[in-house]
Design goal:
CATH architecture: Roll
Number of helices: 4
Shape: globular
Number of domains: 1
Structural class: alpha+beta
Distance between the termini: 48 Å
Helix content: 25-40%
Order of helices and strands: HHEEHEEEEEHE
Strand content: 15-25%
CATH class: Alpha Beta
Largest sheet: 6 strands, antiparallel
CATH topology: Nuclear Transport Factor 2, Chain: A
Number of strands: 8
Amino acid sequence: MRKLLCLIACLFASSIILQAQTTQPVTSSLSMIETERAFARMSEEKGTRPSFRRSSPANGILFRPKAVKGKQWMIDHPLPPSDKRELLSWGPGFADVAASGDMGYTFGPWQYKTDIRDARPVAWGHFVTIWRKQAYGPWKFEVDLGISHPEPAQATFSLEQPRNNPQTTKPPAYNRVGKSAFAIYRTQVFRGLGARWRPDSVRVLCIA
């Protein structure tokens, strides 16, 4: 009986550990996605520069066009006075998070208006943002980069949650522009981050 009770206790403890390991990436993914959306909302409400300053750590990287420390670059390159307010809008199409739950990325479309009052954008593209969960709690981006391309046939900022097991669900079918952009990002991101961020160590959590 004692051996049976020990076995039951071990199985129960194992199930708790497994559930915690499975839940952590899902919870982290949802908080990372909400951080990305809050990042985009602030851009629309208060401007692109304030939103980037808030979401970037001191060493966060932007490309202008070479890699620079984003916060310092914005200090060194202030915007000239203008009666217009530019609008950069974006939203995650899907997101991946590491099994450790402390690093991930978001990917999706962006569009740009020279003035928030304009009826139509004048530029379009796709972005990828590499996120790291800070020791004191919030997510901050480590790298933010994007490419531009002609106006897509259909632009949407919606993110579809997984309907099946996130490890077996196939990624959504992107248009040709989206597929090409993601292929470029995926190659560069994995090269830059090294072995810690191999595709087989990533759980795809936010796909259709």
